[in-house]
Every structure is written in structure tokens, then in C-alpha cells.
Specification:
Residues 155-165 have a biased composition (Polar residues). The protein has 300 residues and is an alpha/beta fold. 33% of the residues lie in helices and 31% in strands.
Length: 300
């Protein structure tokens, strides 16, 4: 029986903001879409949902590559329990993105589907291709232009196996050092935006996946809190946080200092986070410090 290997990814420029999603097999078999406003998790989930819908007639096993542990855990660990509790979490709060999750639950039934986590922005061809296209769709919605949605699922069961090994040509290949640094800055900016989003802040179990076990925060108030204390104190902000990258410094092997500026509800802060390799997202925050600052980001 033929099999299929597909990467699924999503992108939200402001989280929430213009968003795009994409699943990708090869240049002749991929599909993308998006909206004017959505979260990164919504986009990631929708990429998988659309893939399952378009492959209903494909009878072979499918391996879905995701760089989002949230998506994988939703589909393989959490969804059954949420469904049994009437789509409520263990703390009896409503599950976010229920509309997408209920549809995923139906599409996954009686399908031979395997999820595999891959590290994002690490040079994985299929993942990078899906990410590029998802981000391009989000950018198109931001600019008000028509996005490239791709050819859709045009792969037959007879040629699935050969297609999965076809080399992937990235749409905008650039191997320069500057391009690599920009991609890394974008990656950490996305992680920060996800971590401060209401979607993540309202789910401590999800927020915990972004923080190292020995995480420490020096807050803008001067309070010093460990990981458990931070997670207990998390609450939705109610407004999107604008994340502006300032500087990225490589401190050592798999360790980066990311300086950035946050703006929300008329308040600004200069922030610094130390990220270390590891965890389900590929990176986890080890230390964070915030200092109250003007609403306008500094020039550097």
C-alpha cells in the first residue's frame, strides 16, 4: 500500500492577525489558504484539517509532519478527553478552537494517520516549503492581494510513494547569512507572540510547553517568579500584543538572547528572553526580563 508524507504548517503575522496555512507534499501537490485575522494555532490546525479533507479518497497511511506540538497533542492526546467532557478542559473551562477540533475529530476517525514532530526553521525541506507558503498567504491577506492557494491534492495512490521523495525546491531560496539570521529572528518573534497571546495565556498546560523547567522571570514590577508561579498567574490580556524585534545575540551553542519590545493597551516594555534549544517547539524560554518603556519601540 502506498503511503504519503506531508508537512502542515501555519502562520499568523500578529497572532492574531493576517494568517495563512499550508500543507505540502511536493511542487505539484500542495494547498494553502488563510484569513484576514486568525491565530497561529488556528492556522496550524486548519492546515491539518484541510489536508484530511482533501485526502479522503486516499486509502494509504499518511504521516503528517508538524512543528507545532500543540497540534500534535490536540490530535493525539487531548481531544478524546475534551470530547468526553463536552469539549471542556479538566478545569471545566471551554476548549479553544472547538469548531476546528470537532471537525478534525470527525476527519481523523478510521484514518491511518501518524503525526511526527519536526523542528521548525531547521532546514527540513517539506516543513520549510509549507512554512514559506503559509507565511506568503498571511502576507497576501495583510496586503489585500490574492494569495497563491496551490494546485490542491492532485496525487494519485499510484504515484504517492515516488512523489514523497521528490526534492523540494523552496520558492524563495536564499542561503545567505543575512537571510538565515532574519529567519531566526522571525522564529523567536513568533514564539514570543504565541506565548503572550490570549490563546496560550488562557491554557497554562500549553504555555508550559514554551518554558524550560528552570525558567525564571524578572517582571516589569520587579517581582521575580519561577516557572510554576508564572504559570499560576497567567491570565488572558484581552488585546493583541505587538511584538517588535530589537536584537538577537547568539550566546553559545543552542542558546540565544532575544531583545524585543512589547506594546499593548497603550503600555510599552523593553524585554529580553534567553531561549535554549529543547522542548516541543524546538526552543524554550529559560529567562525573561521586562522593563517599562515608552509605547514606541527604541531604534535598536
Amino acid at each position: 500500500m502506498e503511503s504519503l508524507v506531508v508537512a502542515a504548517d501555519g502562520s499568523s503575522l500578529s497572532n492574531p492577525g493576517p494568517a495563512g496555512w499550508c500543507w505540502f507534499v511536493n511542487e505539484s501537490c500542495w494547498h494553502a489558504g488563510g484569513w484576514t485575522k486568525g491565530t497561529n494555532n488556528q492556522a496550524e490546525l486548519t492546515a491539518v484539517l484541510d489536508l484530511l479533507r482533501e485526502t479522503r479518497e486516499f486509502s494509504g497511511p499518511i504521516t503528517i509532519l508538524c512543528d507545532s506540538r500543540y497540534v500534535i497533542d490536540c490530535c493525539t492526546k487531548w481531544m478524546a478527553g475534551w470530547k468526553a467532557r463536552g469539549w471542556k478542559k479538566a478545569d471545566k473551562k471551554p476548549v479553544l478552537n472547538r469548531d476546528i477540533l470537532e471537525q478534525l475529530d470527525k476527519e481523523l476517525a478510521d484514518r491511518d494517520i501518524t503525526f511526527e514532530w519536526v523542528k521548525g526553521h531547521a532546514g527540513h525541506d517539506l516543513n520549510e516549503a509549507a512554512d514559506d507558503r503559509a507565511r506568503a498567504v498571511a502576507t497576501a491577506f495583510k496586503k489585500g492581494t490574492a494569495p497563491d492557494e496551490g494546485p490542491g491534492f492532485t496525487l494519485s495512490a499510484q504515484n504517492a510513494k515516488s512523489a514523497e521523495s521528490t526534492p523540494v525546491a523552496e520558492p524563495h531560496q536564499d542561503t545567505t547569512e543575512a537571510s538565515t539570521e532574519s529567519a531566526t529572528i522571525d522564529m523567536f518573534a513568533r514564539l514570543e507572540a504565541e506565548l503572550v497571546s490570549d490563546e496560550v495565556r488562557s491554557q497554562p498546560d500549553v504555555a508550559a510547553t514554551y518554558l524550560a523547567d528552570d525558567f525564571v522571570e524578572h517582571g516589569t514590577s520587579g517581582a521575580v517568579r519561577n516557572r510554576a508561579e508564572v504559570l499560576r498567574a497567567l491570565r488572558p490580556i484581552g488585546s493583541p500584543v505587538e511584538v517588535t524585534p530589537l536584537e538577537l545575540v547568539e550566546l553559545g551553542a543552542d542558546t540565544y538572547l532575544f531583545r524585543w519590545h512589547s506594546a499593548v493597551r497603550g503600555y510599552g516594555a523593553n524585554r529580553a528572553t534567553i531561549w535554549v534549544a529543547g522542548g516541543s517547539h524546538g526552543w524554550q524560554a529559560r529567562f525573561h526580563q521586562g522593563t517599562t518603556a515608552p509605547i514606541t519601540p527604541p531604534s535598536s
